[in-house]
Amino acid sequence: MMVQTSPCALLFWGLLGCVWVLPVLIAPSSPTLCTSLRTLNTNLTQRRRYMKHNFPINYTIRVHYEEVFKPRNITRLKSQVEGLEAQDLQEVWLLVNKEVLKHILRVLPERHPSYRYTFSLQDLFLKVQQVLPSPDEWEPPERIQEICDRVKDPDYPGWTFVTPKSLLDNFYRTMRCLFSDCFSIQYPEEPNYCNVSHLLRHKSEHQT
Ligand SMILES: *[C@@H]1O[C@H](CO)[C@@H](O)[C@H](O)[C@H]1NC(C)=O
Ligand SMILES: *[C@@H]1O[C@H](CO)[C@@H](O)[C@H](O)[C@H]1NC(C)=O
Ligand SMILES: *[C@@H]1O[C@H](CO)[C@@H](O)[C@H](O)[C@H]1NC(C)=O
Ligand SMILES: *[C@@H]1O[C@H](CO)[C@@H](O)[C@H](O)[C@H]1NC(C)=O
Questions:
Q1: φ, ψ for residue 46 (rounded to 5)?
Q2: How far from chain centre, in Å, is Cα 123?
Q3: Mutate to test the pocket of ligand 3, among 69, 89, 150 (most ligand atoms within 8 A of CB)
Q4: Nearest atom (ligand 2) to Cα of 57
């Protein structure tokens, strides 16, 4: 279902270079939120060093299926879930990545060279969570509720194994997709992180 948008608003989003076919899915982020997200972003750019080089080759962590949350999932949810709002996706992003950071911290002894890094990521992430306006009465679409329930259910049997680097890649890319308005000013050449086909090409050019 599409929310009625005034021509003015469309012009505004058009000028920002956003994907305005789905204006309902984009909500402007506050300056404080953007500041916190940019700090988190800066630290996340170090993820290869701390999540790949410091770990054994092909080391994986067990996570729920739903904790694999990529730009592709966002594209799919946007096209499949009726009445989906920006807030729904942001709540999933918060919930999933809170768990992801917990999973990584759980396997790291305090003296591991990646422990402090992950700990400070969690700190920065909690700051984002504090400033992200949270709904008083959030009534997400059924599909979103189902994802949240599964992530929260320790007994849900859908497990998969993923490298820590890949978990943080997803963390980073979905952040840049969902909060692109915080980054488009800082990085005018910002690739469209929501665009899955773009990312696939990007990935094959810069194979890790
Ligand atoms: C991450 O952020 C924290 C707080 O801003 C900072 O103290 C820390 O040095 C950063 N870590 C890395 C590896 O960038
Ligand atoms: C790591 O995984 C890759 C891809 O699955 C595989 O080709 C490689 O042999 C693995 N390396 C080790 C040391 O297991
Ligand atoms: C994302 O997609 C994968 C399959 O590609 C699925 O296993 C996972 O549950 C999805 N994550 C969410 C949060 O919907
Ligand atoms: C997505 O990326 C592809 C390949 O880079 C490009 O051809 C396409 O126009 C992009 N789509 C959008 C909506 O930006």
A1: -90, 5
A2: 16
A3: 69
A4: 13
- Choose among 185, 162, 181, 156: nearest CA to 62: 162
Q: CA 79, 70, 42, 179: dihedral to nearest 10 degrees? A: 10
SS3 call for 119: helix
The closest ligand to the CA of 117 turns out to be: 1
Tell me if 208 CB under 6 Å of ligand 2.
Answer: no
Q: Dump pLDDT digits (tens) for 74-112.
A: 999 999 999 999 999 999 999 999 999 999 999 999 999
| pTM, entire model | 0.82
**Binned average pLDDT, 10 residues per bin, the chain of 208 residues:** 46 45 58 94 96 95 96 96 94 97 97 97 96 83 96 93 97 95 77 76 51
- 90: amino acid identity, one letter: Q
The predicted-structure confidence for 58-69, as pLDDT tens digits, reads as follows 999 999 999 999
User: Residue 9 and residue 12: Cα distance in Å, rounded?
Assistant: 5
Nearest CA to ligand 1 atom 12: 43
